[in-house]
Design brief:
Order of helices and strands: HHHHEHHEHEHEEHEEHEHEHEHEHE
Strand content: 5-15%
Number of domains: 3
CATH class of the largest domain: Alpha Beta
Distance between the termini: 73 Å
Number of helices: 14
Radius of gyration: 26 Å
Oligomer: single chain
Structural class: alpha/beta
Number of strands: 12
Amino acid sequence: MADVARAAGVSAMTVSYAFGQPERVSAESTEKVRRAAAELGYTGPQPVARSLRRGRTATIGVVLGEHLTYAFDDPQAARFLAGVAQVCADEAVGLTLVPVSGARDDTSRVAQAAVDGFVVWTTSDDDPVLAAVAATGRPAVVHGGPAGGRLPSIGIDDREAARAIGRVVFAGARRPAVLSFPLDRARRSQVIHGPDPDVAAFPVTRNRLAGFRDAWEARGGSWSDVRVIVCSRNKARLGAEAVPRMLGDGADAVAAMSDELALGALGAARQLGVPVPATLAVSGWDDADAAAPAGLSTVRQDLRDQGVRCARIAMGQPDLEEAPHWEIVARSTTPT
């Protein structure tokens, strides 16, 4: 910048204005600066340096404990990120995705992220990224939990919602099953009978298991008899692959923790000619776009709105709204 100023015969401040606030410089001076800059190969102030000087980057960071493609492949993650992006567009700020994978450098990657605030996608109680985010001192929020720590959390009452959808899908059932999210960050696929919900390190998994247990025990059933199929990822394919095993064990109802898993199970059941819900009742979670056409009973929540609220908190704005709304949508895959 100093070299350009000397070549143009103006002050360094004039060069700065010519690139950043041209309305404050005469057209003649701007032309001198631009001509000198072109001759010297100078393209303008570095954005990083400008951000350091201002003390802000005008960017929100979304920390994903998933492969980066998850943000685009998973319908519910996409809905949530659309809400974050809406706020970014309204406020003219950028959006940076910060994927973490359990590697040793996760915490340093988060600490070094050039963002003004963080939104952390649902994670586990023992995720070291939470402490790394809190240590930056920047505004931050966790979607779906963990809650009650150093960071605020936005999400529905998963236990109550699971209890409510459980009452619907388990009505008349004798051998219910659950298609579950992972229990911990190792993401092991496994089959367990009536696990203690507290073994789940992910609050979302833990609370939904507890709600399903509440619903089944309220019907007089024993939770220890309920087969829980833990899926390593939120993929329809994994829901479909679980169906033959469930049917072989005599399952007549399955509560899935997502519409993706439920739709996979539903498609497999129909391919096998299994009557739904007469032989196998199925429920999902989120009310994805594909849920209504499939007749899937599910928990409806507005993930886009939750993304909006998280983004505002990450920008330092207070969240004064009540807990996010949810409701049960009963369709043809569960008993009427």
